[in-house]
Design goal:
This protein is mainly α and 124 residues long. The protein is built from four helices and no strands. Helix 2 runs antiparallel to helix 3.
Length: 124
């Protein structure tokens, strides 16, 4: 998948999470989970974009690590929203599936970047 495609996909994920959070906030006790979800979901895309402007390989890898952590946190908050039934199950499941896919993509990307960096360092 191309960088521009992933940037668009992470932006769409953030927007969908933002819309879901609007509904979650209306439920009793929903404000905190909604805020947490928006924070991590928007951070996925923002940090991925920032990784493309990294000044070094180490900074790139660190940013990808943050992206992966934020995607994992989004999975957590979406599972929480689902488990305590703060929003429509179908909407949450669709977004949860996307969060899991993004987490897998960025976990693989991060592992690959680390492995390639180690290989390059040994080859010097």
């Amino acid at each position: 998948m191309e960088r521009m495609d992933l940037e668009a996909r992470t932006a769409a994920f953030a927007a969908a999470a933002f819309r879901l959070a609007d509904h979650v906030r209306l439920a009793p006790g929903g404000r905190r989970p909604a805020d947490q979800l928006v924070d991590c979901a928007t951070s996925v895309g923002a940090n991925y974009r920032a990784s493309g402007r990294a000044r070094s390989r180490e900074e790139f890898i660190a940013k990808l690590g943050i992206v992966n952590e934020e995607a994992d946190e989004a999975v957590y908050w979406l599972e929480f929203v689902r488990n305590v039934q703060l929003a429509d199950g179908d909407v949450v499941e669709t977004l949860l599936d996307e969060a899991k896919q993004l987490r897998a993509i960025f976990a693989t990307a991060c592992d690959t970047a680390r492995r390639n960096h180690r290989t390059r360092k040994r080859g010097r």
